[in-house]
Amino acid sequence: MAAREFRVADEYTYDRRTAVRWIASHVLRYPWLIGGFALATACLTGMASMVPVLTGRTFDAVLHGADGRQILLLTLAVFGVRTAQALFALVNNFGAETLAQRVQRDARDELYVSLLGKSQTFHNRQRVGDVMARATNDVQQLGPMINPGMRLMSNAILNVVMPLIAISTINPQLLLVPVLFLVSFVIALWRFNRELRPVAGAQRAQFGLLNASLAERISGIEVVKGNAQEPREEARFRANARAYRDAFVRQGHVEARYLPVLIFGIGLGLAFGHGMLLYLNGAATVGQVVSFIGLYYVVREPSYFSLYTFELMQLGTASGNRVLELLRAETELDENRGGVTQPIRGEIAFEHVTFGYGPEPILHDVSFHANPGETVAIVGQTGSGKSTLTQLVQRIYDVQEGRVLVDGVDVREWSMESLRSQIAAIEQDVFLFSRTIRENIAFGAGGRATQEQVEAAARAAQAHDFIARLPNGYETVVGERGFTLSGGQRQRIAIARAFLTDPRILILDDSTSAIDSATEDQIQRALRGILQGRTTLLITHRIAQIRWADRILVMRRGQLVAQGTHEELIATSDAYRRIFAHGEPTDAPPEVAHAR
Ligand code: ATP
Ligand code: MG
User: Which residues 6+ apart lie within 8 Å of 227 measured at CB?
Assistant: First the structure.
């Protein structure tokens, strides 16, 4: 079984081998809709061929001096057949559209569930805009592929078969020209298709690129504006937009060289000549020639639609492929469902851990040990690997060498769900969802927390006062109408979130240094509260916090260069002393002190 970071919902069993199989497996979930649709298509196209046959009969009837009653009956028959045709067209359309919408919905579900289940490494590699383009536009493209795409396609096929049958009942010789037409038509279409495929693929890919770069610029708009880079970004956007347009134009060039319409025109002349020849030889009546020409027009129908239909099919499969690429991308981590699930006591050990995001190692041979309930401070210059080290405890990434142990058990042997649900991390830069403050605090508890519990957590995190002063209190929606929280406020929301989930291991990545002393004080109090009785990995630049730690790890370029208590390190470690070299105690970040 493939590695998988969390199975979120029920297992889907779609066939993911090729785009066509995948789409087919989606469509086949609805056999009743397909059955109804197929029946309606058969009736619809059968009726379409009956009309010219009846028309020809009417001609013959008139020419042979039939009475008014007979002609009236034939006219009514044509009327009836047309009406029935319209009704079947309705069923046909309705069935196809329902199918299209359901498949789109299922595919969207499948993709979303699969994205949630993928590892952090996977998401780091993906560009958000590209994923968004696949999840919205590409999934949406599956709809038109089914309706009108597949609907027109199946109508087209039957609209060839039915008239051919009707023509063969008039006079099998008459099949000659329509069959010739169809053969050359199929060849032309096949060539057309071969040319269109790469162009359609390129057009979709270019759209993904355009979208991805736009999404990146918009999420990074502050940086763009702050650096007055609008003109350059505009130029880049233009280049991308131009490339997208060019892809469209290339597609237009291919489409302009579409031959079937011409082939049909030549065929019509030949068919008429052939019909007249048979009439002159007495092998066909006038009415039969009229029927024949009418049926030939029915055969033409596919050549009308096939251009558009093929485009839809191409775009649909191209999109299907792009969605499949995301679905199929393997994740490196396995959630290990059957792994260890037990309450964590909080012992953490690193044994000769080496790790890198890519081939280059970022952490080299790191070993340390923390007892349950201890606070371990991690210090070191920026980029020395502090945040990376803490992510290994939650198993956001797997180590390349050595082991990370929690309560003496390798994190790879833990059930990921059990491990991560008992570890809370307050990141360097706290992410809040565009939901209410209450929901943001209750997030980790799966939204099950009551208002009282949320408030208690907020109080403990020193966040209640500022939340109460917000216009809608706990119901204030983050990000709505420009409402945002400051860094210090976000941090306290994150602490409140952690209070609610009551984790055994806590990771605090507290590198924000620009906080006023009143807020600083509140955060200190909040932290002291939450550290109680939990093993804590604390990344900080604040000397006061470093001092309370039971153990301090000094990181330097991915190596653990010293560890011990503050007193021990001051006495033994050069690297540690250098951090405090320029007069202590200081609240300035160590790397700043170091740089002075
Ligand atoms: P800071 O004090 O600035 O937060 P840090 O000690 O937390 O620094 P890390 O974030 O652990 O440093 O980064 C260590 C190294 O790993 C850096 O060289 C960084 O470029 C690299 N790195 C961090 N995150 C990733 C990632 N997702 N993919 C690739 N490389 C990364
Ligand atoms: Mg960091």
Answer: none
